[in-house]
User: Fold this.
Amino acid sequence: MVDQLVQLWPELSNSFLETLIMVGIGLTVALLLGLPLGILLFVTDRELFLENKWVKGGTGVIVNLVRSIPFIILLVFLFPFTDFLLGTTTGPVAASVSLSVAAIPFYARIVESAARDIDRGVIEAAIACGASPWLIIKDMILPEIKPALISGLTITAISLIGFSAMAGTIGGGGIGDLAIRYGYYRYDNFVMFTTVILLIVMVQGIQYMGDIVAKSVKKS
Amino acid sequence: MISIQHLSKSYTSKEEIVVGVDDVSLEIQGGEMFGVVGYSGAGKSTLLRCMNILERPTSGKVTVDGIDLMSLSSKELREARQSIGMIFQGFHLAMSKTVVENVSFALKASGVGRIERKERAEELLNLVGLSDKANHYPAQLSGGQKQRVSIARALANNPKVLLCDEATSALDPNTTQSILQLLKKINHELGLTIVLITHEMEVVKEICHRCAVMEDGKVIEEGNTYDIFAAPKHQVTQKFIQTVLDFTIPEVLLEKCKGTIVKMKFTGESAEEAVVSDLLQEHNIRGNILHGKVDYIQEQPLGTFVMELTGDEHEVRQALQSLHTTLAEVEVLKDGRSVGSIMA
Assistant:
């Protein structure tokens, strides 16, 4: 068994790295674009300080549109776009494009629902102070939902691991790809179990870390 | 300081128009403590929220410190709001911020620098008596302490007006008292104009110079707190006054009494004179007090007594006559001879 593991090691570590790249890029993009998008969805909602039913409606429709496409189809659907962007549709970076596209609205909805949990009165008090919308977002909303933002990132990361396995099967690489190639096509149970265990450990690790960080930023 | 002219606010919901505030006009003077009383749904909260355009009136005019708030751009409105502090029933503090950070937020809103913010926040916490809790989180504070923090936040930018939205309704009587005393102190020391809305007549009685009573979006009565308490005209006002000054005599007692039962209200100077003892001596009748109290509203006495007068029928009648000339209000609850009939 040790022999098998040693034999598998180079490919395993390579796959692991590929998964990390895919999840990492997806997560970063989710944070950079999904967070502002989620805040936008929140502040343009009814009775909020930047209420705008066209922006809210339009953004909402786009977000739902992306979220309603099953990921495996989104992957294929975005091939032309990925090709245009990177000149290739294979490899973990290419797979990151569709992972990111899926992760943005996913995280945006998490951010939006976290913001909804803030007591409206707190935002109202900030408005009554004469605070600008930007100050309210930066200094009131974001600090209030910080723990939820972090646990949201944890959820997104774990979903991305699942998605990356799908992306792997059509040329993205990663642990999921390894599991399918050996486990499914070659009936190599050892590789399959190893990858499943690796995935379990990864998910547990991310959840554990996410919980710790979310707890540490939680004040009051 | 605050001038409201023909202000109306209505909401459209499901093809139905709900009127929150209906053509209200009010003038609130600088340095005044003004109370707005009403049952829930009377529109008092909406009226208050129109005073800093947290809710935009459907029609009418709101002028605070000479500035027509309705005509301002959103940037100008933000600046105007910095000189209108507001506190709420639910305190509305940011849970992720410490006490001092909560106060600093308001200072940030007006662009105060970091070092100055710290100094000013400490000064404010000192004013509200919370210097030792500066680095606590709101969750670690009691209701009264939270309201003190929100008062400090509301006062951060040296406002001219403080709006209080049921500021004491969530607090126990003791804490309510201490918050009211704090508001009184602020009004006195900083010359701040304070508008507070409440459903507790006790609060109005305690600190308001003037007050208005609202029902169904309209102001139905307005005047000096003392006058409102001494002679409430509208039925709703009378009901409110009754919550603080209740002089209902049990039916059983009314039936038992043989004499004439009369309710007398002493206002202003008459409350300080020996009206009753003079009356009894002069007319040679006997008086038996069934209920009574002297209240001090805005440091003026307001006395209400319910007495049973017994003696010669003619003398009692004459005594009542003379009471009518000396007192603001005399009401005969029960005539000595024929039970149930009321004579003026």
